[in-house]
Design brief:
The chain is of the alpha+beta class. It has two helices and seven strands. The chain has one domain. The chain is 19% helix and 34% strand. Strand 5 and strand 6 form a beta hairpin.
Length: 159
């Protein structure tokens, strides 16, 4: 009888630990069918201001603890030009790629690389956001545009 109570207690403890780990996960993933469906995601800083106006199938993953963000969107005919106008192409060796795949939809060739990511244009995009009223904070975001797939991946990494 005591062994059974001990086993039930162990199972309850494991369920409680799992629940706490799930609730304490500070990563959130969202999907928007089009930019307008994103609501205030841009104002919150999870979507870059330079995202293509015709963006669709937008996925964004953000970490509330580290302020790291990873995302992807599909674009139409004008989309890659909008990103290119807002960002500048850079050498891959100057880019802090994510250290690991943040999500299943993130391409393996855009992880911790200093080699050519075939088919991608790698870009650096400066962003400005209001830190305090009247004060601007500037940060860097990065984009990998794959025109052959009409897709752009973007990320902000910490440190």
């Amino acid at each position: 009888m005591l062994a059974r109570i001990g086993m039930i207690g162990m199972v309850l403890l494991l369920v409680l630990i799992g629940l706490v780990m799930y609730v304490c996960n500070d990563r959130r993933e969202e999907h928007y069918s089009r930019l307008a469906a994103g609501g205030d995601a841009m104002a919150r800083g999870w979507l870059p201001r330079w995202i293509a106006s015709d963006a669709t199938d937008i996925r964004v993953l953000y970490d509330l603890d580290t302020n790291e963000t990873w995302g992807v969107f599909k674009f139409g005919e004008a989309g890659s030009h909008e990103v290119a106008d807002a960002c500048k192409e850079v050498l891959e060796t100057s880019v802090p790629f994510p250290r690991s795949r943040p999500a299943k939809w993130w391409p393996a060739e855009l992880v911790n690389t200093s080699e050519t990511s075939a088919g991608y244009r790698i870009m650096k995009c400066q962003e400005r956001s209001v830190d305090k009223p009247g004060q601007w904070e500037t940060s860097d975001a990065f984009a990998a545009v794959k025109s052959s797939a009409n897709a752009a991946y973007f990320w902000r990494v910490s440190g």
